[in-house]
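Exercise 7. Given the encoded structure of a 326-residue chain, write a plausible sequence.
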C-alpha cells in the first residue's frame, strides 16, 4: 500500500517546478476545456486547471486514464487529480495520470477553490449603491437605480471576465466600484466631462455581463452572451431603464453611447469608437482598472521568491512581482 500523495494547491505545485517526475495530488477547478485532434488523428484535451492561487495548463491525451473523467466533468467542475510534475516549452505543465469529479459537499468545504476578494463584498456593494445615490441628475440616477434593481443580485456575485481581468466571483462588483472611485477622483481634472453622465456610464458599462456570463466555480459565456455579447446586452438593459425613468432623448443617447463604446476599440468588442467626452473618459478608466486588476491579481498569486509572473496576455508581458528595494 503506497503512501497518500500530498494534496497541493497551485502555488505549491508551481513551487515544485524543476522537480520533474515528482508525484502529487490536487483538488482543482476546470477553468477551460478544449477538445482537439492531434496530427495523427487522435483526440486530446487542452485543460486549464486552477484554484484561488492561480492556474496552469496541461494536455490530456485520449489514452490517458484521466481523459474520460476530465471530459465528462466539463468546464466549471471541481476534480481531484493525481499526476507528476513536468513542464512543456519552459512552462509548468504537469502530467495528469488520474482524475475524478468531486461532490458539492466537498466543494463547499474547500475554500481554496474559490478566489477570494481582498475587500469585503458587502462593503463593495454598499459603496456601489452610495455612488448611485451621488448621481445628481434625477433621471440618470433613476435609470442607474432601475438597472441595479433588475440585475443587482447576479451583479453582486458575477465575474467581470472569463480570464483577462477580475475573472472571479464578485469580480464584476470589484471592477465597477474601483472604476467609480477612480471616476470620482479624476472628475475635478476634467471639467468638460458631465459628472452625472460619467458616473452613470461607469456604474452601468458592464451590466450586460450578468447575462453574458454564467457559472460559479468558473466563468463561461451563455447562449445570449455568444450571440449578442455584453455590450449589446448592456445597451438593452440601459435603454429599457432609461425609457422607464423618462430620461430625455439626448441624455439617453449619450448614455447608450458610453455602453456601446466602452470597450475602446472595435477589435476589443466596442460597437463604435468613443465620441463624447464622457465616453472617452469612461473607456479610459475601464482600460486602466482592467489592466491594474491584472497587475493586482498577478501580485496576489506570485509565489515567494518569484521575480516575474507568467506572461499576462492582457499586458503582453510578464510582470515584475518584487517591490522596489526587495
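Solution.
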Amino acid at each position: 500500500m503506497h503512501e497518500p500523495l500530498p494534496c497541493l494547491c497551485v502555488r505549491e505545485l508551481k513551487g515544485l517546478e524543476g522537480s520533474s517526475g515528482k508525484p502529487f495530488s490536487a483538488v482543482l477547478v476546470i477553468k477551460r476545456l478544449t477538445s482537439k485532434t492531434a496530427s495523427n488523428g487522435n483526440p486530446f484535451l487542452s485543460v486549464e486547471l486552477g484554484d484561488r492561487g492561480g492556474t496552469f495548463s496541461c494536455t490530456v491525451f485520449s489514452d490517458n486514464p484521466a481523459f474520460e473523467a476530465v471530459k465528462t466533468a466539463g468546464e466549471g467542475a471541481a476534480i481531484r487529480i493525481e499526476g507528476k510534475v513536468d513542464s512543456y516549452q519552459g512552462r509548468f505543465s504537469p502530467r495528469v495520470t488520474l482524475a475524478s469529479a468531486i461532490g458539492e459537499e466537498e466543494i463547499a468545504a474547500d475554500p481554496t477553490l474559490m478566489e477570494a476578494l481582498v475587500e469585503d463584498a458587502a462593503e463593495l456593494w454598499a459603496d456601489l449603491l452610495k455612488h448611485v445615490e451621488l448621481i445628481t441628475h434625477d433621471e440618470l440616477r433613476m435609470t442607474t437605480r432601475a438597472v441595479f434593481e433588475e440585475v443587482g443580485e447576479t451583479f453582486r456575485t458575477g465575474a467581470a471576465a472569463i480570464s483577462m481581468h477580475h475573472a472571479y466571483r464578485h469580480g464584476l462588483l470589484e471592477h465597477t466600484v474601483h472604476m467609480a472611485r477612480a471616476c470620482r477622483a479624476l472628475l475635478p481634472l476634467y471639467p468638460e466631462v458631465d459628472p452625472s453622465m460619467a458616473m452613470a456610464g461607469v456604474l452601468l458599462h458592464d451590466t450586460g455581463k450578468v447575462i453574458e456570463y454564467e457559472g460559479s466555480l468558473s466563468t463561461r459565456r451563455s447562449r445570449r452572451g455568444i450571440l449578442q455579447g455584453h455590450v449589446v446586452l448592456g445597451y438593452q438593459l440601459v435603454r429599457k431603464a432609461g425609457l422607464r425613468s423618462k430620461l430625455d432623448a439626448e441624455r439617453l443617447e449619450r448614455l447608450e453611447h458610453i455602453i456601446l463604446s466602452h470597450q475602446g476599440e472595435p477589435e476589443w468588442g466596442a460597437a463604435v469608437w468613443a465620441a463624447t467626452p464622457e465616453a472617452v473618459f469612461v473607456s479610459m478608466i475601464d482600460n486602466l482598472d482592467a489592466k491594474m486588476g491584472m497587475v493586482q491579481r498577478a501580485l496576489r498569486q506570485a509565489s515567494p521568491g518569484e521575480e516575474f509572473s507568467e506572461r499576462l496576455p492582457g499586458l503582453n508581458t510578464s510582470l515584475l512581482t518584487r517591490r522596489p528595494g526587495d
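Remark. The chain has a mean pLDDT of 88. Students should compare their own answers with the one above.
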